[in-house]
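User: Before I run my own analysis I want an independent prediction to cross-check against. Here's the chain; please return only the structure tokens and, at the end, one sentence I can use as a sanity check.
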Amino acid sequence: MPSKTFAVQVTTRASRQAVTLQPDGLLKVKLTSAPVDGRANAELIKLLANYFNTAKSNVEIIKGLTGRKKLVTIHSIKNPK
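Assistant: Structure tokens:
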């Protein structure tokens, strides 16, 4: 399966998790954790792996580890939920 790269805009400390694909290809992701000690990035990887039905090891944050805007590559995408 080919890999796909997405621009991701993250909102932390949300009341619930959500993934929304915008018409321009931007993924808006709401996370419940705070951006402390990499917890938000770990939650993002887990949530995107679940959303794209792939293993966490197939999700890679390429850019923006400390920012709200990130560039994420998903390897081996099966069927998104």
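Sanity check: The radius of gyration is 12 Å.
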